[in-house]
Amino acid sequence: MNGGNMTGAQAPLSGIRVVDFSRMLPGPWCTQMLSDLGAEVIKVEQPPVGDLGRHNAPNFRKESVYFNTVNLSKESIDLDLSRDEDRATARRLLGTADVVVESFRAGVTRRLGIDYESVRAINPCVVYCSITGFGQTGPFAKIPGHDLVVQCTTGSMGVAMGDNSEPPANPAFQAADYAAANYAIIGILAALQRRAGTGAGAHLDISMFDALFSMTNVISNVALAHLAGFKSAPQMELWGRNPRYATYSTKDGKAVAVSLLEAHIWKQFCELIGRSDLIAPGEAARDRHTHHGDRAALYREAIASLCKSHTRDELVAWMLANDIPIMPVYTPDEAIDSEHARQRGLIEWIEHPVEGRIPVLANPLARSGLTTGARNPAPSLGSDRERVLAKLHAEPGR
C-alpha cells in the first residue's frame, strides 16, 4: 500500500513536534495519525503503569496487540508529574512543542501544572488539544469519557429502541472514541494552518460527546423536526424494520447484509431471483427508507427464504457477479483475512524487537502518498527517555 510515501522533509507534518499526554484510544489514535503524516510524537507516560492501553488483552508474545495499533512510530518518556524534577522536565518539553494532546478529565491538567494557560505562558503559539468525554464545561464535564456512556447520551444507541423495553446491546464499534480522534486531527491541522499565517496558537476543546453528537444528523432528523414544531414527522428506517435493509441468516448458520434500498436495485434483484411479482410499479424515491407498509412481510419472507436456501459464500458470489449489494457478515478474523482487505493493502507487517514480525492496520492515506511509509513499532514504557532528554539539551532555543 504505497502511493509514493514521503520521507523526511517531504512529509506534510515534518518539523512538527507533538507532546502527547493522552491515553487509551482517542488521543493515541489521533497522535499516531499525526506521526504517520510526519510529525515527531513524544508520548509522556506515568510510571510504573504507563498508558492503560498497554494492558489491554490480547497480547502478542508479551505486549498488547491493541497498544501496538495506536502508538506506532512514537517515542516514550516516563515522567511522574507528582515529582518536581519530572514536572520541570515536562515543562521544558512543553516549551518546545508545536502541538500538545492531553486526555485528562477536566481540571486535572491545572492541578498538574500543564494546563493550556500554563503552557501558553511559556509557549504562546502552541496548539493545545484537550480530549475528554463530555468537554471542559457542562453538567457531564467531570464524568470519565468511556465510549459506552457517551454513545448512550448522544442518542445513537436509543434510536432503535422504539417501544422495546429492553435496553440496547453494547455497541460493537467505539464510535465516540474515533469521532473525537478524527475531530482532534481536523482541529489540529486547521489550527496549524491558521498559525502558519497568523502566528496564533489555539486551545481545542474536543469532546467525544460533541464529536459523535455532530455526526447524528441522520439519527436526529425526527428530533430536529420535533424541535421545529413538526410533531408527526416519520422516522427514516435504517435500523431493521426495513426488510430491504437488514441482516439475514443463511443456510450454513452464517449471515448476510442486504442493502436493496433503491427501486432500480430492488428491481434488478427481483428479476435476478425470478420474483418480478415483488416489484412495486409505483415505488418512489421517498419509499426507499420506509418499512414498505403492507408489502414488508412479503419482502421479508422472500429475502429470508432466499438466504436460507444458500450458504453465505455461494449467495454472496452470485450477488457479486451481478453487482447486487448483498454482502457477507464477516467475523473480525474473516475481515482481516479477506481478499478485499489484502488487495487494498490494509494490513501492514512491521518488525518488533520483542514480538518479531507483527501485523497492524495500515493507514489508508498511504495509498495517496501522504504518509511517511513504513512505521516503527510502539515504544516500550520510557524506552526513549534518554534520547528525548538529549534532544531537549541540544535544542534549548527551539
What's the structural blueprint in terms of helices and strands?
Blueprint lengths: L16 E4 L5 H11 L3 E6 L21 H4 L4 E4 L5 H12 L3 E4 L5 H5 L3 H7 L4 E6 L14 H8 L20 H24 L3 E6 H6 L7 H7 L17 E5 L5 E5 L3 H10 L23 H13 L3 H9 L5 E3 L3 H5 L2 H5 L3 E6 L3 E6 L23 H10 L4
Summarize model confidence as the mean pLDDT. Answer: 94
Tally of DSSP helical segments: 15
- As laid out across the biggest beta sheet, the strand order is 3-2-1-4-5-6
What structural class do you assign from the helix and strand content?
alpha/beta
Spans of 5+ residues with little confidence (pLDDT < 50)? Answer: none
In terms of DSSP E residues, the strand content is: 5-15%
**N- and C-termini, Cα separation:** 35 Å
- Report on the biggest sheet: 6 strands, parallel
By DSSP, the count of extended strands is 11
Write the H/E string, N to C: EHEHEHEHHEHHEHHEEHHHEHHEEH
In one word, what is the shape?
elongated
C-alpha Rg (nearest Å): 25 Å
> Portion of residues in helices?
25-40%
What oligomeric state is this? Answer: single chain
